[in-house]
């Protein structure tokens, strides 16, 4: 849909793209990518059966999976908040889901991605809750944490692709 609108109605496409806050979205994307890094650091701890920190809160080297997953959750929540802020800004400038084809495609693609990010945030909370609820952090809990990381990394990779197509590709041609 995106490429069709771009080729069939280039003026509408250019007008919609010009309204995007690319520097803001770039920072928001970097926050989401950073959440993938912190998630993977949590996976390393889960694989070594270190669910919680063994030192003080400021001793990052002694964090466990839970602390890294809390940080991943926080960064993911910042990303979603950034998307909401971007939507509100675009809506105030007249770009809405029903304003034209560009608005429809933009909100549908980024909105569905945002819903998947929210699903990942819920999964982080489930992993953390399951960790606290387990009598002993074992293979099942570690496997659950790793599976959630697969989902999170996939959501991040999909966003990097969407970001490239929606925000950066128009500069290439």
TrEMBL record:
InterPro entries: Cyt_c/ubiquinol_Oxase_su3, Cyt_c_oxidase-like_su3, Cyt_c_oxidase_su3-like_sf, Cyt_c_oxidase_su3_a-hlx. Gene3D superfamilies: Cytochrome c oxidase, subunit III, four-helix bundle. It is a multi-pass membrane protein. Keywords: Cell membrane, Membrane, Transmembrane, Transmembrane helix. Residues 1-171 form the Heme-copper oxidase subunit III family profile domain. This is cytochrome-c oxidase. The chain crosses the membrane at residues 20-44, 65-85, 105-129, 150-169. It is an enzyme of class 7 (translocase). PROSITE patterns: COX3 (PS50253). Its main location: membrane. The keyword Calcium does not apply. It comes from Brevibacterium samyangense. Its EC number is 7.1.1.9. Belongs to the cytochrome c oxidase subunit 3 family. CDD domains: Heme_Cu_Oxidase_III_like. It is found in: Cell membrane. PANTHER family: CYTOCHROME BO(3) UBIQUINOL OXIDASE SUBUNIT 3, CYTOCHROME C OXIDASE SUBUNIT III.
């Amino acid at each position: 849909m995106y490429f069709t609108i771009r080729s069939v109605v280039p003026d509408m496409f250019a007008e919609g793209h010009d309204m995007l806050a690319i520097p803001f979205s770039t920072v928001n994307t970097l926050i989401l990518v950073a959440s993938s890094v912190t998630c993977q650091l949590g996976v390393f701890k889960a694989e070594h059966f270190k669910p919680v920190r063994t030192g003080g809160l400021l001793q990052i080297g002694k964090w466990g999976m839970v602390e890294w997953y809390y940080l991943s959750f926080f960064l993911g929540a910042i990303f979603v908040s950034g998307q909401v802020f971007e939507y509100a800004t675009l809506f105030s400038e007249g770009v809405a889901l029903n304003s034209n084809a560009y608005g429809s495609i933009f909100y549908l693609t980024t909105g569905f991605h945002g819903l998947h990010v929210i699903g990942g945030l819920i999964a982080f909370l489930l992993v953390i809750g399951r960790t606290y609820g387990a009598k002993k952090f074992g293979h099942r809990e570690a496997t659950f944490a790793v599976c959630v990381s697969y989902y999170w990394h996939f959501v991040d990779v999909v966003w990097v692709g969407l970001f490239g197509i929606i925000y950066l590709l128009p500069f290439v041609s």
